Amino acid sequence: MKRFRKLCMLTGIWTLLVSVLATGCTGISYSGDKNGELAQPFLGKTITLVTANHPWADAIRPLLPEFEAATGMNVIIQGFFEDQLTQKLTLQLTTGSATPDVFMYRPLQEGKLFYKNGWLEPLDDYAREDAEYAYADFSGEAIRSATVDGKLAGIPVIMEQEILYYRKDLLKKAGIPVPDTIEELISAVRKLHDPDNGVYGFIARGQRSPLVTQVSSFLYSEGGDFTNGQKATINTPEAMRAFSIYGGLLRDYGPPGVINMSWPQASAFFAEGKAAFYTDANSIYKSAIDPARSNISEHIGFASFPAGRSGTRFYNITSWGLAMNPRAVDKEAAWAFIRWATSKEIVLETQRKGNPGARYSVWNMPGGTEGFPKEMVEVIKQEGAGGVDHDRPTVVNVAEARETVGEIVQRVITGDPDLQQAADKANAALQAILDKEAE
Question: Which pTM does this prediction carry?
């Protein structure tokens, strides 16, 4: 089976490269060998790939030798932690460096800033004019997440949605059905909250900036958003209701110190069996069910995000994409790599390792779901074709905007009695960010 997969993957590489080189949008001419097959089309070429220290990078790394053998291209890969990655990219791209040629980036975190600074090569012509690439196979929400000012700034590699994690054993013992609505979630959390016996009703991100992405689905499901066009809307009744629900769940049914928790701490807390419910991204499910941390992994269930007053409106986004440096010396070589790494064949291979991809077809391929729990696959398929294409304010200065929103929720967690006044002040701060960027 492994030999068959490897043969199929190599065949896929050759097919992709023939298409890359033959398609008119690349402008490359080539000659075949006596059998009509392409000799290594990028022989002697070297590109640098910079990645986050992410499971996707771990999955792509062992596949590179086959790509290099088929193309003649040498791929130098460098990995960094998220903050280090942003710092490295900012430094190199600011100086006009031609490297890295290709890099991982977070479209909703750095996308607008990088594009505004001219650090992202638009990929529209490469992707859309190549019929063999099957651009239409990508999720529409994923593409919109990676689009800036109408231009495709990167290709999605990791897609994620917010889902509900829960303890099946606790719900079954209490006779409580899986919540379909936020009101049902609040009721179930209240009933299962039992800190005296080591189980809290609810856990999620409570740290100021990290919590923003996870409160977003509460916000959308209650009928709100961070902005409406160029108008800040984080002090509206809908926003206040959503922030109060999320912050209230953490305040009343979360553990001490939750205000300092980002996803690693929250997922570990849930994995240890210390909470009945947990809302977060589906892409971190391995951390949430890690059997090395807990003996309750077999009791963990997955469900779609519960509906609020405006229905179920969860975020459905590209969390990581692949981008091309506009100053790359050989853009055709850079695109050949991106095209290969985001092809159906390679997305299938990386998805087998538990990396949720953005191609619809792969989720229906044999083996396309083997890297995920069966229940989660059903949830991903349900949520994969809908939702909202952002999980934070879509501005250039994302970091400041997230701090501004997160402050409101943290005031709920700490029980601030002047919440509306704080929200009005935060809304004015977000509006100032929008106004400045519109100048």
Answer: 0.90
